[in-house]
Amino acid sequence: MPIGRMSSPLVTGEEMSSWLDPIEADAERVRLSAGIRPEVAVPDLEAAFGALGLTVATRPLGRGRPEAVYTGHGVALLNPSGLPARTRFVAAHLLAHHLYGDEPHVEREVERDLERPGCDDRQRRASGFAARFLVGREALWARAPARITAEAVLRLAAEFQVGYEVMLRRLRDTGLIEPEGWSEMDDVRVRWPTSSGHNGVGRHARPPHPGR
Ligand SMILES: [Zn+2]
Q1: How many angstroms separate the alpha carbon of residue 112 from the centre of ligand 1?
Q2: What domains are defined for the chain?
Q3: Please, which residues have CB less than 5 A from ligand 1, an ion?
């Protein structure tokens, strides 16, 4: 596999940003070796799997069932039962296990591995890789507006075809918003009208299409 050596950092602890930096480098190298340009927002996962030697079989198992099974030896089973963005995240998570040579296991709610206290380090690494692979740093920098609002996070999440929480984390990872200095709820209060307008926030609201 022409991707060079994966950094394979497995450091325990809650400080994600410090130990995930090598994974950023891994994800960027893997994107390049799969022919995905740094500025591309939506990598073609099937093409990447083909280039990187991972076979993913899809089988709808229904909601409430495992999201995927990583069987090892370059093969995985994917259950595409959720939203497309979530399924793409699980698929990229499986790619990470393949590239890092992880042990076979069953997948459940892998997007939450980025936040879950006490999560297995290999799961966190795979989900950290998935976020970086799907939302390339350069692609994000090229598209992010100067002022990040909750609306902008939603728009970017849709453009990159990832979940809102994944996009929020990537904006923090890449320095586009401060880790603690931005509250989407404050922003929502200011920018978005509520239906009732009587709950104390409606007076700050404005029409969704100002100037029209
Ligand atoms: Zn996993």
Answers
A1: 11
A2: 16-136 (1.10.10)
A3: 107, 123, 126
